[in-house]
Amino acid sequence: MTEPVKVAVVYYSSTGNTHTLAEAVAEGAEKAGAEVRLRRVAELAPPEAIAGNPAWQAHHDASRDIAVASPADLVWADAVVLGTPTRFGNVASQLKQFLDTLGGQWSQGQLADKVYSGFVSTSTPHGGRESTLLALYNTVHHFGGILVTPGYTDPIQFATGTPYGPSHHDAQGQNPLTEETKESARYTGKRVTQVAAQLKTGRAVTHD
Question: Which CATH superfamily is domain 6-207 in?
Answer without folding.
Answer: Flavodoxin domain (3.40.50.360)
